[in-house]
Design a protein that fits this description.
11 helices; seven-stranded mixed beta sheet; 343 residues; alpha+beta; binds 3,4-dihydroxyphenylalanine; single chain
Length: 343
């Protein structure tokens, strides 16, 4: 190596060994290797040299470059080791300092409402049930008295799961009602149960339609269960949600698995004269419900001479939107922290 190169190398080595951090080392390294740096400058000069000197100068510059590269790598490794050592021996670590605050998240607004309702219903003697999100066609439709030609069975409305021919067909459940079927198979009347969970529909999504949303099914089976029990329970539910008595009304509604079936409306809890939430009507559509259709009870193996029941299907997503004034259902499952951090 030419003596001028040997001096350069020695100079760099001295600076490397006194570099106290990776950042300092990196800045020295840039001086050597960056555009316009030591090595680049040397190589740039080669073409202007006498032809007989060019090969030698090029080789010498490359030799210096390789030597520097090896030294920088070694210096980097040395600094990393030293940092590890310091950490191990507790050098930079002060155990008496308060720990950095952990960033705490919060429960999703859907989870909050779900848990409140679970508390409320379990306090009334209900069990909380869970059902699979991939459900048998039979449980999602047939056992609920939903006819073969019902439009809900159409591929336009429902996500069907590919199943081999001859095997029972599966769907992403379109509602939580199939948990009613599972409850009747497992519980002995009298019983009360709720089943919160995700449901799926093949929707074109917009502010009020989402392919995945949350419902909470309710089912009560016992002797002499009537519409009166249903209304009383819904009043208790509203009292629990809004903290005061709220008037309800029933309108007829059709669902194949209840007879009679109703739409239950609640007096708008937000206004007296009409507002945007109740669309100026002072009534809010709260949930569909009804007395369980005898065919559904029978399919569930329940003695219809002795028992009757009521069921309801609460739209959890809608309830959360109403509670917080959320105008677009798609916010709920988008996972955007700017939205979630508000709860
Ligand atoms: N499963 C129905 C739906 O998603 C809602 C429903 C209506 C549930 C009436 C019920 C009921 O339990 O009694 O459209």
């Amino acid at each position: 190596m030419q003596s001028e190169h040997a001096d350069l190398l020695a100079g760099y080595r001295a600076r490397m060994s006194s570099a106290a951090s990776q950042e300092v080392l990196r800045s020295i390294e840039r001086e050597a290797f960056d555009k316009g740096g030591t090595i680049a400058g040397m190589l740039a000069k080669v073409p202007s040299l006498e032809p007989s000197e060019r090969a030698g100068a090029g080789r010498a510059a490359n030799e210096l470059k390789r030597a520097l590269e090896a030294d920088f790598a070694a210096a980097r490794e040395r600094l990393a080791q030293a940092a590890l050592e310091r950490e191990r021996s507790g050098g930079d670590f002060d155990a008496t300092l308060p720990a950095p605050k952990a960033r705490r998240g919060s429960l999703h607004p859907l989870t909050q409402v779900q848990r409140e309702l679970e508390d409320l219903f379990t306090s009334m003697g209900y069990e909380v049930l869970d059902g699979p999100e991939i459900e048998l066609e039979r449980n999602n439709f047939d056992a609920l008295n939903i006819a073969k030609d019902h439009p809900a069975r159409d591929a336009m409305d429902t996500f069907w799961v590919k199943t081999p021919p001859g095997q029972e067909r599966l769907v992403l459940r379109t509602h939580t009602s199939p948990v009613q079927v599972r409850a009747m198979a497992h519980l002995k009347p009298p019983f009360r149960a709720i089943a919160p969970g995700k449901v799926f529909r093949q929707e074109t999504t917009d502010a009020s339609h989402e392919h995945t949303f949350h419902q909470m099914e309710g089912l009560v089976v016992g002797e002499g269960i009537s519409v009166g029990n249903l209304i009383g329970t819904m009043q208790t539910l509203l009292q629990g949600i809004f903290g005061r008595a709220i008037e309800v009304r029933l309108r007829p509604g059709y669902f194949p698995f209840v007879e009679p079936g109703f739409e239950l409306d609640a007096r708008c809890p937000f206004c007296k004269q009409g507002c945007s939430v109740c669309k100026r009507s002072t009534w809010i559509e709260l949930l569909p419900c009804g007395l369980v259709h005898p065919r559904v009870l029978e399919a569930g193996g329940i003695d219809i001479e002795r028992y009757s029941g009521f069921a309801f299907g609460l739209g959890l997503s809608r309830l959360v939107m109403m509670r917080h004034g959320i105008e677009d259902v798609r916010h709920l499952l988008a996972g955007d922290l700017r939205f979630l951090e508000q709860f």
